[in-house]
Amino acid sequence: MLHIVNKSPFQTRTLDTCLRMAQPGNALLLIEDGVYAATVGSETEARVRQACATLKVYALQPDMDARGVTAKLIDGVTLVDYGGFVDLTVQTRTSHSWL
Fold first, then answer.
1. Overall domain count for the chain
2. What is the extent of the structural domain holding 87?
3. The 3-state secondary structure of the chain, one letter per residue
4. How far is residue 28's CA from residue 4's CA, in Å, rounded to a whole number?
5. For the whole model, what pTM was predicted?
6. For 42-82, what is each residue's pLDDT tens digit?
7. For the chain, which has fewer Cβ within 10 Å, the N-terminal or C-terminal residue?
8. CATH of the domain at 93
């Protein structure tokens, strides 16, 4: 399953709920303001690093670039472009957008 989180982890608990529900081997894609969770020094850094141990964690590079945080990407999180986003949706049987 592909879990897609687009909300800032500093405004909602969406990421935490997603991480509780995600199963080992699932994929997590951070998009829009959700990419802030993938930054070094954020309050979510430890949770995202822990998630990388059991999930495939991705962040949408155009959204990282737009927010000026690409250089702060957490090790273990893979950047994808829009084509990579499409590839992830095709590769996984189901996806869930966390609102």
1. 1
2. 2-98
3. CEEEECCCCCCCCHHHHHHHHCCCCCEEEECHHHHHHHECCCCCHHHHHHHHCCCEEEEEHHHHHHCCCHHHECCCCEEECHHHHHHHHHHCCCEEEEC
4. 6
5. 0.96
6. 999 999 999 999 999 999 999 999 999 999 999 999 999 99
7. C
8. 3.40.1260.10
